Amino acid sequence: MHTLPIFLVVFTSVWLASGCAIDVSPRSFVHQAEQPTPLDTTGLHSAATKDEISVGITTVEMTNAQGLTLTGVAVTYPEPVVNIVFFGGNGMAISKANGYLHKLGKLPANIMWIDYQGMGASERAEKIVIENLKKDALQVFDYASEVFPQELPTLVHGLSMGSLIASYVATEREVDGLVLEGAINGVPELVDNLIPMWSKLFTRVNLHPELVGIDNGVLLEQYHGPLFMLVGEKDRTTPVQFTEQLYRLSPSENKAMYVVPEADHGTTMKQPGTLKRYREFVASL
């Protein structure tokens, strides 16, 4: 599952149209659908049924500060050992990727996942603003903290673009752990990585000010709690060196990194061995 296809399409289209200049704005970087789509949890039901696991699935709707309705799910697995607030990748809607929830759920865990504004089942604003995504994330975490069992540790888990959101939440709220999967170290570095090497000499990138300052390293330097980092061995979107750089910057005393064999971007939870490492991290909380 690749979590940045929309951005890659826009990125390539802009490059071809301009020849040598790329303008990257929040609008072009963060996927926004024209209309919300009905929430579909068929994939999760099918995966749970196949494994003969009884799963509780509750639809969650909340109104954000802009008056938009954000929609998602709260999923409960039998005898959970951890609460997870999950932040997905760019364009990663619950309805198209809810089978992923089953991978996390088998820890076992309680999971909260709300589609970002303008993605999946959530309403969109006329203009996408990064600061509003951050405010939404705090609201989602606060709600999860209220409804999930207080006696269990609660961690935030971010995949790809969601790694930036999860790290931000971890610096603003008391979390018991932080999981970064296919982490982005910064938008400038991500964009540079996606530009073909042969074109860099004659390509100029104009990043919007909102995107220039997004730096996961700065966020991680402020976070001292438990940290678990996952990255696919074959990840070309957010390569292993991104995660290694962030791991070195982290001041956390309880931190672990797992390079998942044979995995590429967004497929680390599908590989044998990942769940075992994840459980070890949860046990350390």
UniProtKB/TrEMBL annotation:
<feature type="domain" description="Serine aminopeptidase S33">
    <location>
        <begin position="82"/>
        <end position="205"/>
    </location>
</feature>
<dbReference type="InterPro" id="IPR029058">
    <property type="entry name" value="AB_hydrolase_fold"/>
</dbReference>
<dbReference type="InterPro" id="IPR022742">
    <property type="entry name" value="Hydrolase_4"/>
</dbReference>
<dbReference type="Pfam" id="PF12146">
    <property type="entry name" value="Hydrolase_4"/>
</dbReference>
<protein>
    <submittedName>
        <fullName>Lysophospholipase</fullName>
    </submittedName>
</protein>
